[in-house]
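A reminder before we start the practical. When you read a complex entry, don't treat the lines as separate problems. The point of joint prediction is that each chain is placed relative to the others, so the output describes one connected object in space. Small molecules and nucleic acid strands, if listed, are placed in the same frame. In the example below there are two entries. Take a minute to note the order of the lines before looking further.
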Amino acid sequence: MAATVSSGRDAVATPIQRAFREAFYAGAISLGLFVLFIGLRTDQNITNELILVQRWLLLAIVVIAVTVGRFLYVAYAVPAMERSKAEKAATPAVVAEPGFIKQNFNRIGLVILLLYPIAMVLLFGFQGSLKWVDNFGIQILIYVMLAWGLNIVVGLAGLLDLGYVAFYAVGAYAYALLGTHFGLSFWILLPAAGCMAAFWGVMLGFPVLRLRGDYLAIVTLAFGEIIRLVLINWREVTNGSAGISGIPKVSFFGLISFNVSDPNYIAKVLHIAQSGAYYKIFLYYLALGLCLLTAFVTIRLRRLPVGRAWEALREDEIACRSLGINTTTTKLTAFATGAMFGGFAGSFFAARQGFVSPESFVFLESAIILAIVVLGGMGSLGGIAVAALVMIGGTEILRELDFLKAVFGPDFTPELYRMLLFGMAMVIVMLWKPRGFVGSREPTAFLKERRAVSASFTKEGHG
Amino acid sequence: MAGTTLLDVKGVETYYGNIRALNGVNVTVNQGEIVALIGANGAGKSTLMMTIFGAPRARAGTITFAGNDITQMPTHEIARLRIAQSPEGRRIFPRMTVMENLQMGASLDNLQHYAEDVEKVFSLFPRLKERIGQRGGTLSGGEQQMLSIGRALMARPKLLLLDEPSLGLAPLIVKQIFDAIRELNKSQGLTVFLVEQNAFGALKLATRGYVMVNGNVTMSGTGKELLANPEVRAAYLEGGHH
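Here is the predicted structure of the whole assembly.
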């Protein structure tokens, strides 16, 4: 975009003059484009006749927004960017000591995550905190967990998996079915669901061992769909599209229950007022714990031979084999480990919702999880967490933007535009940081001192 | 000099689809030797090297290594018999550091002798030590070749297969690498099987040599014999090589 702005002809014009002209052009183009898209709409009236609805105000708002945006971009943003670029070029490249925040990024993030529900309760009260802890906190943490699990398969082992949601579904249904039929507790079923998902990870792994890149992606995509279709059609077991409801809640290791009717209900044990928020806050910390477990395991594995073998496999399979690495078992362990964390996330999801149906496990979910991994920077746990925060938090925030209705009319529902936001974020990140938010990779082996590797390791574009 | 037979390739035929790349090749490598295989582009040199490693698999003939029939073995199990390879195109792990690449080479041993072996590699190729934290992909061609050989050595091989170690390198670097190979052979008694287009350098280095043309071994002899052979001279040596 910047290239179109600074063409040679404009060299004499001041940025403001240029901005006026560019803004005028942009406005004219958007008017031409949108006059039929936005200005007019066909509708049916009560007698079923086709009528034209005129929306000139909305059109005017969009055109003015484009014009003003272009003006600001050309007049202020571009010169500022060029100035900072020139400054950067002028100052010699000194490797700055990373700031306090950068150095302690993980610790600060962890403290914020630990204090988050408490802060929300203090700010909004128990009832008001529900939305923030549940819709934002837990929702984001589930996706962080899923993305970190997928990161093992895609980011470390380099196996592009488009059907990851299948393992999420296996975990969720494993908990839902075993929990409702046999009344087993979450703490038994969590590892069981993980094992079940890992088993299916291996089952998927076997037939696709020989495949790589695009071919692997297609087969895994098909696997995700197969699992979903089985869940829909195997009515006797899964209750089909209607799903399974009445999934038991998680208890605090059986000591404290979150069911109001139970004798050991939390409010009765601790002698406090009844509230649904306790359960949500408990679930939040549970999700956080599961996330930390995933991160811990991933970090440890990267330093073990199997983790190194995954990364080497991503780089060069033939070289791996000629170094005596059994690529079959290496791939299968990657699939199984990734799937296991998907299973954990799934059983947590089922426990949190109390209801599962095949609708929660559509391809779009796989795509979102994969997008988070790619945007965050494949292989980087911090980057992926930030990407999950932005993408999932961002789409949730859209629900809160009621004031946009005042601008775009009462029919405007911001949450319908979440995919637009996703797409935009994708384009912006890929333009500016083609390797994701965090593209640099921490090496796992050191001789004496810890030296950062400046160059990045994540994949760029190719399959 | 002539020890026991370490690698014995007998009547090996390899196909790519229906195209025959090797027509019954016989090659032996004895303990403690440096054996060079020379030939033009497309003669089947690299195919032979890969066939020894089981990818592609030989359709006829047998390959024996230290008494084990490895003809039908999977690649990684062949490697576990301590055959190490610096493959064509080097195939280092570009996004992993020099250190991590070397660690990968030692995976067979589960890093038991890692510290000791890494020092050996660094004394052989001091340049790698300077580059220790650098990504493999950012190294120069010569350094990548050193890394590829170093990585192969980390597995403590009984036999080292080198596929065109001089490819695309400046003469000075080629000399360094050939010197290193000679040094390994002399001081540690490492057996080396070398595929080269740089016939002059390879034959000078080698105890024995084989000449390959269109998937057949047409000539063999000691390095000196082949260097003196008029046919070899005409085909591979006179025509610009040094």
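Discuss with your neighbour: The mean pLDDT of chain A is 84. What might explain this?
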